[in-house]
Amino acid sequence: MILVTGATGFLGAELAKELILRGNTIRCTKRDTSTIPEILLPYPAKIEWVDADLMDSFALEAALDGVTQVYNCAAWVSLKAADKAPMIRTNVTGTGYLVDLCTEKGIRMVHTSSVAAVGEAKPGELITENNHLDPSLESDGYAISKLESEMEVWRGIAEGLDAVIVNPTIIIGPSAGVEGSGQIFETVRKGLKFYTKGTIGFVDVQDVAKCMIALMESGISAERYIINAENRPYQQIFTEIADKLGKPAPAKLAQPWMMELAWRGASVWSTLTGNSPAIDKTSARAASVIREFDNSKIKKAIGFEFRPLSETIAEVCQVLTQ
């Protein structure tokens, strides 16, 4: 039996669907308050849903009964300052519980991390899996939670866990809706006027799922892989999305001081309304930074070729304009 944690999320749902399309009957965890994603509704006979929060070790142990493979996609993501400490504690502790159980039961794991947990390269060089984040210099709660969760997996590997870690860049796809990376498309659709100087990696959600499955089936263990299709300047991405949506491309450069004002204003508004800020300090500053990622390790390991990013952008925009 295959278990997918976090299957109600963007990546987890796509991964579950890909596994089903390959002929598998799977088990998926969800919270009792979670809504089953629309893309998984056509497959009720292929999915055994179980209520199991990662913080409930007893429910996790029950969910792992008869399981031989685990894809761990579960994580709490929040930009709220008040959520920083509990988010780190939840993501790290929950991963630790799962690692301990998989180690004890001899279950193979593919763990989903993020490039947020990967360090910086020297200027002019691509970021690789060998670049390690310095936690003493990091203030972003999400990055810290992903790094420390990875450390739990590495601890498990040292204790005999059979596992691989993936570090995707920004994941895009039509099923994201207007949440997460879907906000990029929605913001452009509403009329984005500014762009930033930064560059970042992007990847199709289906490619991430396919890479995870290929790694699970490869027998490779004790490795981490950056999953990235292309590195693109934000301005180029915004312009291409705007073109596909028939909207004006952003034409004004947002200077770093403007981004500082933006995140500070968003923080105040978040405090007043109780909603998540549209942008936080980390993402505002990252928008003007060039981070380019090397995908040669994953391509060599499983012989994978990524879908051109322009095809994914066109697909997402087509869904938004229907």
Question: Mind explaining what this structure looks like?
Answer:
By secondary structure, the chain is α/β, with parallel strands linked by helices. The chain has a domain at 2-175 and 201-230 and 292-308: NAD(P)-binding Rossmann-like Domain (Rossmann fold, 3-Layer(aba) Sandwich). The protein is 43% helix and 16% strand. It is built from eleven helices and twelve strands. It has helices spanning 10-21, 57-63, 84-105, 141-158, 182-191, 205-218, 234-245, 256-273, 281-286, 296-302, 309-320; strands spanning 2-5, 26-30, 47-51, 69-72, 108-112, 163-168, 170-172, 194-195, 199-204, 223-227, 230-233, 252-253. Strands 3-2-1-4-5-6-10 form a seven-stranded parallel sheet, sandwiched between helices. It has a three-stranded mixed sheet with strand order 7-9-11. Strands 8-12 form a two-stranded parallel sheet. Helix 3 (84-105) links the parallel strand 4 and strand 5 (108-112). Helix 1 crosses helix 6 (205-218) and helix 3 (84-105) runs parallel beside helix 4. The longest helix has 22 residues, at 84-105. The protein is globular. The two termini are 38 Å apart. The mean pLDDT is 86.
